[in-house]
Design goal:
single chain, alpha/beta, five-stranded mixed beta sheet, 4 helices, about 15% strand
Length: about 160
């Protein structure tokens, strides 16, 4: 009897790759982030990337990183994690979210309020920025687990 192949990718690798693929939909010239919400059976519930709210054209608002609130992207953009949660069509039960970046405080609140129990993130490049410190604090206080995914194949 033939044996199953032993080199299939893990669920973590599968969903992180999906997060990177959906991130490629982002029109943001400086940051492309992606997220995937999955249930306890590893069924995808929602996908998201960073961009404007639905119906707003990519060139309708500024993509600037510096300037006043009205001149930068930050007041307008929906983050990947938010969009992945908004795009789920059912209430996540024992769900987890895979993110290319560690979630900010606003995304942390969305994750917590929607009952997602675990966050798997790849990059923590903003770990010293206050809104990301707040995100970790919110997860710690609410019992949401989080862990960094490091690709065994690439060592990243």
């Amino acid at each position: 009897m033939e044996q199953p192949r032993s080199n299939a990718i893990s669920w973590d690798e599968c969903f992180m790759r999906m997060a990177h693929v959906i991130a490629e939909r982002s029109k943001d010239p400086s940051t492309q982030a992606g997220a995937v919400v999955v249930d306890q059976n590893n069924v995808v519930l929602g996908l998201g990337y960073n961009g404007w709210p639905r119906g707003i054209e990519a060139d309708a608002l500024p993509w600037n990183r510096e300037g006043s609130v009205l001149e930068t992207k930050y007041a307008y953009v929906c983050h990947a994690e938010e969009n992945a949660v908004y795009n789920t069509h059912s209430k996540p039960i024992s769900a987890k979210v895979y993110c290319t970046l560690f979630p900010c405080n606003e995304c942390a609140k969305t994750i917590i309020q929607n009952g997602i129990q675990e966050v798997i993130y790849e990059s923590d490049k903003y770990k010293d920025v206050d809104i990301f410190i707040v995100g970790k604090k919110l997860f710690d206080l609410s019992g949401v687990k989080y862990r960094q995914y490091i690709c065994a194949e690439h060592g990243k």
